[in-house]
Amino acid sequence: MSLFSAVEMAPRDPILGLNEQFNADSNPKKVNLGVGVYYDDNGKLPLLQCVQAAEQQMMEKPQARGYLPIDGIAAYDAAVQALVFGAGSEPVKSKRVATVQALGGTGGLKIGADFLKKVSPDAKVLISDPSWENHRALFTQAGFTVESYPYYNAARRGIDFDGMLTALAAAPAGTIVVLHACCHNPTGYDITPAQWDQVVTAIKANKLVPFLDMAYQGFGQGIAEDGAVIGKFLASGLDFFVSTSFSKSFSLYGERVGALSVLCQNADEAARVLSQLKIMIRTNYSNPPTHGGQVVATVLNTPQLRAQWEQELAEMRQRIKLMRQAMVDKLKAAGVSRDMSFIAEQVGMFSYSGLTKPQMERLRSEFGVYGTDTGRMCVAALNSKNIDYVCQAIAKVL
Ligand code: PMP
């Protein structure tokens, strides 16, 4: 008997498994629509001009790499607060937001989850059905019981908003509710501003704890539009959590740049919350890495680079929209009779295509077109060269 002889093999990550299958596929026409990564029209992962310019600036004044403070680069945290809550907004001015630099959006979620487990150990966590796979795993790993609220109705091919509201109304006080601030992953369906108002009202009435996951700010309708939900929660007077990711919006996936912000009632509370978040960080990885945070802080805090970023982000957003509309048109042209216009109404990187598991399997085995078994496809990986092939393949399996 060794220490590890009883250790079980954990199940493979479904998306990474799909990637391995894709890499092993010898079909020259293969297209990977599995992973959540934005590729440009040449099928390349972009390196944004604003990022290159910031790195150039940084190289011109080379800095030694000391430890960062536990909560990260101060200018980075300030830029995140300005982006999420508004520059010079009331909560920022009154210092009632505790913000820490985190290892991507995932890191922000995990620091928040670990902190919540301390302040609210018996609370349950509700995530959307379906949700990003890691939500359930991450909050479970932090020690919570995770359940779900209805979100997507496959039969109606849209959001089950009544089901969602009913679940929120039935949740016990203190329940932590994880919400996708914009660009819902995996479905691509967001609730409307008026529906957000109802969600905020239900959460407030029931004394629930909102945790907003903002992994795609700027990928849906625009930076301000995608962030508008924050204003609604602010106006409600609730305390809430926001995790931020710059993985997609800066195309800095591997740098692990994200943040966690906790909105508190006053500056004193925020200082105490911050001190606790720092313990979570200190005992996990001590302090964050320097490079990615410095790049993002430089871009966000330099007006000219900031403008360039907004322009490049808009280009990514518009290209995704173009691909969505092209998909609707090309599916129709390929003879698909069912109404596929919902693809152009969805937002963000993903589309729940409505295709069944057997249809997705056929797409893979016969055409080398890879999406998840749930029918999720990453429309941000479509381009002018592969879209005809993908649409013809989909038309054949439908
Ligand atoms: N939340 C959601 C909804 C996501 O889709 C993702 C990325 N796929 C994340 C969080 C994590 O982002 P990051 O890569 O920055 O950790």
From TrEMBL:
It is an enzyme of class 2 (transferase). Its cofactor is pyridoxal 5'-phosphate. GO terms for molecular function: identical protein binding; L-tyrosine-2-oxoglutarate transaminase activity; pyridoxal phosphate binding. It holds the Pfam family Aminotran_1_2. Keywords: Aminotransferase, Pyridoxal phosphate, Transferase. One of its GO terms (cellular component) is cytosol. Residues 29-394 form the Aminotransferase class I/classII large domain. Its EC number is 2.6.1.-. The keyword Cell wall biogenesis/degradation does not apply. GO terms for biological process: L-phenylalanine biosynthetic process from chorismate via phenylpyruvate. InterPro entries: Aminotransferase_I/II_large (IPR004839), Asp_trans (IPR000796), NHTrfase_class1_PyrdxlP-BS (IPR004838), PyrdxlP-dep_Trfase (IPR015424), PyrdxlP-dep_Trfase_major (IPR015421), PyrdxlP-dep_Trfase_small (IPR015422). Belongs to the class-I pyridoxal-phosphate-dependent aminotransferase family. Homodimer. NCBIfam families: PRK09257.1 (NF006719). This is Aminotransferase.
